[in-house]
Design a protein that fits this description.
By secondary structure, the chain is of the alpha/beta class. Helices cover about 40% and strands about 10% of the residues. It has a six-stranded parallel β-sheet, sandwiched between helices. The chain has a five-stranded parallel β-sheet with strand order 1-2-3-5-4, sandwiched between helices. Helix 27 links the parallel strand 13 and strand 14. The radius of gyration is 33 Å and the shape is globular.
């Protein structure tokens, strides 16, 4: 480059160039011409001319990058890099120690006879990214601003453990217990990935379920703004960092919510994508360029994009690139070839990268082959990374994504850049020695050769490196990652708020969905916890009768409402506010779950208990977002999931894909989920009260509340809600079953007896069947309300487990067995769920047991037709009870046939004229 030539980074609508200016005078004339147009004709004319120039440039095949992407070079040029404030030598040594211990920990865990797995390569590629953060940016919980939230890439966990070991937070024994969480004793092992439930004082966010990190990080940043705007907590100094892999970005969830972050201007959010160009088996985009692809996605979505592609040793070469030949080579080389360059010799690089053009060859004629082989990627250069992180934290008005080019397995010669590196979990002694030499560690061959396991390295508690690490963390507010639970105590409401539901609805017909919404409104008015409720819905508040909350609670929007609403003159008009309480997520169940997770864990992440109430079509809960709900349990979240319009035959007009008959079965697989299927409003009142006590109250066993969340299914079918019975069996309601209606007619020794177990919307069928059995067939049946099939099974399983472990103690009896003991006759279960839901308890029912259910796909029709088709209506229950009695010899088989024919239980057309109320959502 000519002496005095000026390198001017120019950013115009995302179109940067860093080519040297070979004619500053000509450049100045162009810029002055543009300034003149702006001054004399205004911005519109200048914009028109610029666009015409771009159009003409493309017509003449000038290499102008598309507006959605930029050249394959660093976004921040050398002359704009800030001063690096750290001690470069000390930080390099720290990284070496962490790299070593992370790799040794995984290698030890995969010794013969143990072989529990683990990943070495991911952290090795990302070490500089994390260490720049830990030493200079990530604020801990003791920071005056409250601390950052850091989503660590799951496969990088060994490096985080290795850092914690140097800091004194983890012991060598704990490193040796990596992935051995039971065999080494409770609390002594280290979880494979970030799992808060397994390490509740260390990890804050579960991240290894690919794709969920991106969504949850976005909604965490958004919820931080929600807390601030509502005046609950000042989160203005808290930043959300999400570390992701370039392969992970192929998951639809990873990119699915990025528009939310830009739309709400979440400049408190930074994605750091470790672009080592490699997924599990090979290149992410072997024939393409994943960094360019991701840049176009994020830039198009309105994000600030910072690329960190080349290390500082490329800067002199780029400075010579007066005609753009080097940049062009970088732009046109596919990722697969860059992976090859990462493992090849300098001679190969000279021939295949710099050898295609005389000008390129001349650039590197003063460099040796070894120099070429060592030309570094930007993600391994702490100065380049520091510049990107600093720019991200200072950027205003947009979220930032940092695309950092790295090499998977970097510094470990046996793994570096190889396709199989993800599956390589062991290092031979020769590999270990080469790795030690690469890191310049003072470990002798003897220490490696004479030990079955390679040693960890710690420079000593009094070393300069450890002192430096601890001081940096002290300045930044303490250790990270760290999870703390010290929530603001809540005063829970008393019985008064629940009294309305316990009175019943008189003659009015009220669906349990509406009953729940009525209770939620009353709870939101409570002075103690009302402001803590966070109602969440994916575009469906009105469906559930929650539009009455619009004028008062309002819908959250960080910009308020900047338009006149079309329904502004209506009483229940759509009202947005920056202080709004309701989170209206649009048609995005995944986004809604992101908000649930952020709100449901605020008691730990912010010390402010919030109570998410996510209401949704039950079909679109566990089936659609079950992975998010699993992570919800892992993150120890609390709150309510309300599966509304539940059951397979209630939302019948919508048809197959809206008809849920299995969500309770799916919910039963989640250990953190407490699931109920209440039939009546008064049951709901007791369940919600107890849920708030368990999750947000304080007890000796759980001083900060229990780490569970509740799934309640409610229905859209309007029914007359009964008042709670006198001497209501509250224990039975909460534990899962109680006798709701005992047969009241005359009974003698010859009267056949039966027990009907029902839940949810199945209760009216059971009660009607009880009447028909008595009046038409002389059968005395009792009806039991099963509020939770799942909790009954969970209790029974726990009883059996205790008995197995305590054979010399008095055996525990499952609650369902206790409650039904002595009940006469066969037991017939019915619900709007597939039979597998009530069949969960069959083993512990003390008598003959059978069930009716809605197995199969749903369809569009009336409720009576659907229930007759599935044989769960009252008539079918009657026949089911008679059949159970016939099997016991208590009624004749001909009686069963007579009843089946009388009720035409095989013919849905027989109920074609039966009226229904509230047939849709």
């Amino acid at each position: 480059m000519a002496s005095g030539a000026e390198r001017r980074p120019i950013i115009t609508d995302g179109l940067p160039t860093q080519l040297p200016d070979i004619d500053p005078d000509e450049t100045r004339e162009w810029i002055e011409s543009l300034d003149a147009v702006l001054d004399e004709r205004g911005q519109e004319r200048a914009r028109y001319l610029m666009l015409r120039l771009l159009e003409r440039a493309r017509e003449r095949q000038v290499g102008v990058p598309a507006l959605r992407s930029t050249d394959y070079i660093n976004s921040i040029p050398p002359d704009r890099e800030p001063w690096f404030p750290g001690d470069e030598h000390v930080e390099r040594r720290i990284r070496a120690y962490i790299r070593w211990n992370a790799a040794i920990m995984v290698s030890r865990a995969n010794r013969k006879g143990l072989e529990v797995g683990g990943h070495i390569a991911t952290y090795q590629s990302a070490a500089s990214l994390y260490e720049v953060g830990f030493n200079h940016f990530f604020r801990g919980k003791d920071h005056p601003g409250g601390g950052d939230q850091i989503f660590i890439q799951g496969h990088a966990s060994p490096g985080i453990y290795a850092r914690a070991f140097l800091e004194g937070r983890l012991s060598e024994d704990q490193l040796n217990a990596f992935r051995q969480e039971v065999s080494q004793g409770a609390g002594n092992g280290l979880s494979s990935y970030p799992h808060p439930r397994l390490m509740p004082n260390f990890w804050e966010f579960p991240t290894v379920s690919m794709g969920l990190t991106a969504v949850n990080a976005i909604y965490q940043a958004r919820f931080n703004r929600y807390l601030r705007n509502r005046g609950i907590k000042d989160t203005s100094q808290q930043h959300v960092w999400a570390f992701l892999g370039d392969g992970e970005m192929s998951e639809p969830e990873s990119l699915g919510a990025i528009g939310v972050a830009s739309r709400e201007e979440l400049d408190n959010l930074t994605f750091v994508i470790n672009c080592n160009l490699q997924q599990l088996d090979g290149p992410v985009r072997g024939n393409g360029k994943v960094i360019q692809e991701l840049e176009s996605y994020f830039r198009g979505a309105g994000w600030n994009v910072i690329k960190v592609i080349w290390g500082r040793d490329w800067d002199p070469l780029l400075a010579q690139d007066v005609d753009g030949v080097l940049v062009n080579k970088m732009n046109t080389t596919p990722d697969g070839q860059f992976q090859t360059f990462s493992v090849e010799t300098g001679e190969y690089i000279r021939e295949h990268f710099f050898g295609g053009d005389r000008r390129l060859g001349k650039m590197v004629e003063g460099l040796s082959d070894d120099d070429l082989r060592k030309l570094s990627r930007g993600g391994h250069d702490y100065r380049k990374v520091y510049a990107a992180f600093k720019a991200a934290t200072e950027h205003v008005g947009q979220p930032t994504v940092i695309l950092a080019h790295t090499i998977k397995g970097w510094t470990i010669e046996a793994l570096e850049g190889r396709n199989a590196t993800h599956q390589m979990k062991k290092l031979t002694k020769d590999d270990v020695k080469k790795f030690r030499d690469r890191l310049y560690l003072p470990i002798s061959d003897k220490e490696i050769d004479e030990n079955d396991l390679p040693p960890y390295y710690h420079p000593g508690k009094d070393s300069d490196e450890i002192a430096y690490m601890l001081e940096r963390r002290r300045q930044l507010g303490g250790p990270a990652p760290e999870r703390r639970v010290s929530p603001t105590p809540l005063k829970l409401p008393g019985d008064a708020v629940y009294s309305e539901l316990r009175k019943g609805s008189g003659k009015q017909r009220v669906a349990t969905t509406m009953a729940f919404v009525r209770l939620l409104k009353d709870l939101m008015r409570d002075k103690g916890i009302g402001a803590r409720f966070v109602p969440i819905a994916p575009d469906e508040f009105r469906t559930f009768g929650m539009d009455s909350m619009f004028p008062t609670a309002k819908i959250y929007d960080p910009f308020g409402q900047t338009y006149e609403g079309v329904d502004r003159k209506l009483l229940l008009s759509y009202k947005q506010s920056e202080k709004g309480q309701l989170l209206h997520e649009g048609i995005s169940e995944a986004g809604a779950m992101g908000s649930v997770t952020a709100a449901g864990t605020a008691y730990a992440t912010h010390g402010e208990p919030m109570i998410p109430v996510y209401i949704f079509y039950s079909m679109f809960g566990f089936q659609r977002t079950g992975d998010f709900m699993w992570a919800l349990g892992d993150q120890l979240a609390r709150g309510f999931l309300i599966g509304a319009t539940a059951g397979r035959t209630t939302l019948t007009g919508e048809g197959l894909q809206h008809a849920d008959g299995h969500s309770h079965l799916l919910a039963s697989t989640n250990p953190a989920c407490v699931a109920y299927d209440p039939a009546f409003a008064f049951e709901l009142s007791y369940i919600v009260k107890d849920a708030l006590r368990r999750m947000y109250g304080s007890s000796e066993e759980h001083p900060n509340g229990e780490d569970v969340f509740y799934y309640l299914t409610v229905y859209n079918e309007p029914l007359v809600q009964p008042a709670e019975p006198e001497n209501a069996d509250v224990e039975g309601i909460l534990r899962g079953v109680y006798r709701y209606s005992e047969h009241t007619g005359e009974v003698d020794d010859r009267t056949p007896r039966a027990q009907i177990l029902a839940s949810g919307v199945g209760m009216p069928w059971a009660l009607d069947a009880q009447r028909m059995l008595s009046q038409d067939w002389g059968i005395a049946a009792d009806v039991w309300s099963v509020t939770s099939w799942n909790e009954l099974r969970r209790d029974a399983v726990e009883a059996e487990k205790w008995n197995l472990r305590n054979p010399d103690s008095e055996a525990k009896v499952p609650y369902i067995s206790q409650k039904l003991a002595g009940a006469a006759g066969p037991f017939v279960a019915v619900s709007d769920w597939m039979r597998a839901v009530p069949d969960q308890i069959s083993r512990w029912v003390p008598g003959d047991y059978s069930s009716l259910g809605t197995d199969g796909y749903g369809f569009a029709d009336t409720r009576p037709a659907a229930r007759r088709f599935f044989n769960v209506d009252a008539a079918s229950v009657v026949v089911g009870v008679l059949a159970a009695l016939a099997r016991r010899g208590e009624v004749k088989q001909s009686t069963v046939r007579e009843a089946a024919d009388r009720y035409a239980i095989t013919d849905p057309t027989a109920v074609a004229d039966v009226a229904q109320e509230g047939g849709d959502a």
